[in-house]
Design brief:
The chain is an alpha/beta fold. Strand 5, helix 4 and strand 6 form a beta-alpha-beta unit.
């Protein structure tokens, strides 16, 4: 009989809710979504991309190198120099081997600057290289 009283007294107290499994599940879901999602590294500047009828979406993780109408370069929300493009692209490709490099040049950007940027990307080892364009409306 004394064993029964002990069990009943223990159950009669306030109910406890164990939050540890819930927190574990939330962290597992967060890790799952971070691992399965792909991220796009934006250039940090708005450019008017030229229209192209054959424009397609790039599915790989991308590094965007933007060229403004004045010919300035931007990578990851910071202004960059032409000499810094090659090491930036090489570092990106070392971190993401299947990644793509997208050059987003403004319609009015100097063609020579676009060619120099494409050349630096190729010299850095970029094999999946694209020029950004928008689809006609």
């Amino acid at each position: 009989m004394s064993c029964y009283r002990h069990v009943r007294a223990r159950r009669g107290g306030p109910a406890e809710l164990n939050m540890a499994p819930l927190i574990d599940m939330v962290f597992l879901l967060l890790i799952f979504f971070l691992v399965t999602s792909s991220f796009v590294r934006e250039a940090g500047v708005e450019v008017r991309r030229p229209e192209a009828a054959i424009a397609v979406d790039v599915q790989a993780e991308t590094l965007v190198v933007a060229i403004t109408a004045e010919g300035t370069l931007h990578v990851d929300h910071t202004r960059a120099d032409l000499r810094s493009i090659r090491p930036l692209v090489a570092r990106f490709l070392a971190a993401t081997p299947g990644g793509a490099v997208v050059v987003a040049a403004d319609e009015a950007a100097p063609a020579g600057q676009v060619v120099r940027v494409l050349d630096q990307c190729r010299l850095a080892g970029a094999r999946n290289l694209a020029v950004a364009a928008r689809r006609p409306e």
